[in-house]
Specification:
This protein is an all-beta fold. The chain is about 0% helix and about 40% strand. A hairpin with a 4-residue loop joins β4 and β5.
Length: about 100
């Protein structure tokens, strides 16, 4: 996939859904599954965060918890290794079985 500068893009395959971001020339990617119940997060581009549709919880694009209404705070999102090669973004995901 290609990614314009300072943008966020959702990606998915048979085993993983995530978001990849480029900011200041650095790529990062996180899982799109909320660490509370596994609900798929939604990109809130205006606020620059990932919102959970199941409860009032949001994560930063770096995967760190921003806020939550839950008594027990959810863990940070799983990081996904990514790189840029020949103008394409590559995410290193688990092999499909």
């Amino acid at each position: 996939m290609t990614l314009p500068a300072d943008r966020v893009k959702r990606f998915a395959n048979a085993t993983t859904v995530g978001f990849v971001a480029e900011h200041g020339g650095t790529l990062s990617a996180v899982s799109a599954a909320c660490t509370h119940q596994g609900c798929l997060l939604r990109l809130n581009e205006t606020a620059g965060r990932l919102d959970c549709p199941c409860h009032r919880t949001a994560f930063g694009l770096d995967g760190k918890l921003m806020f939550s209404q839950l008594e027990t705070l959810p863990a940070t999102l799983a990081q996904i290794q990514v790189r840029s090669r020949d103008g394409q973004v590559e995410a290193f995901l688990p092999h499909e079985v």
